[in-house]
Amino acid sequence: MILAIPSPLGVALGIATAIAYGFAAAAGARLSRQSTQWALGIAWLLHAAVLAHGLVGSEPRFGFAPALSVTAWLVLTVYAVESRMYPQLKVRRALAWLGAAAVLLAILFPGTPLHVTASPWLPLHLALGIASYGLFGAAVVHAWLITRAEKQIRLATAEPQGGVPLLTLERLTFRFVTAGFVLLSATLLAGLLFSEQLYGAAGRAWKWDHKTTFSVLAWLTFAVLLIGRVRFGWRGRTARRVLYAGSALLLLAYVGSRFVLEVVLARPPV
User: CA torsion angle for 245, 249, 255, 260 (degrees, to 10)?
Assistant: First the structure.
């Protein structure tokens, strides 16, 4: 395994971001809610700078770890918006640790250079795919919150005036699933119709490799979930299990295949 070496500026920004996230997570219990939000906001901005440097710097790179980093940043973005509407959401510390881990992983594995001969539409194609990752990631976080709330109710440890109602969490979960499904559909359609144009000289026609296979399986799983929700009223544990299965398949599609190529096989993806 050969580790790629990111730029010194990228390393410095990444370490500063991880420290900021770590401070927000570790000190969150001792700070006021407003102070914690400020700390998390600073870390979020530093994270955005790290992503911008990696994607549009002197040598743009992308891979499984940057994809996870972008996903974590998008999930934190969703939380920042939702926390304004639902102050009861209490996942700041968990998301801060998630952000720190994602940034540090991206420092160790910054990915491979993007195709210089690729179409200018390739960044949009990648953005659609990673945005779907972020939305499904947000759905998974909400599903986990539902599971935690149900456990607290069973153990009679739920706070009387705290937390977001379960029906609200469930409704938000399926909104994210629906939006993620739309973006994933657009990503697959673009790959099917414009694969050769997207990758320029490095382009190739649509083929059933591991990434494509897992992506289509994930799409089918989410389609089944949405149909089951509308047609059969799926909810609760059944719906969450299907959501987790689809998310795992989607994670294997890009992150999993790139991890194998970049780390296990130590060669650039074709």
Answer: 120
